[in-house]
Design a protein that fits this description.
This protein is an all-alpha fold and 54 residues long. The protein has three helices and no strands.
Length: 54
């Protein structure tokens, strides 16, 4: 049971790290790339600055 819980925590931690990295990458995209994915600069800034746990 403990091993299962540790695996779940590890999976959750990895997911949070990936989310954090993806959000930071949004902040580095130029306006042309943001237009390509359908996000404006304001939305990218709001999403990119969220804490990793949200």
């Amino acid at each position: 049971m403990l091993l299962k819980r540790l695996k779940q925590l590890r999976t959750a931690f990895k997911r949070q790290c990936q989310r954090h990295c993806s959000r930071r990458q949004l902040l580095r995209l130029d306006s042309h790339l943001l237009d390509d994915i359908g996000i404006d600069r304001i939305d990218a800034e709001c999403e990119g600055r969220k804490p990793f746990w949200k």
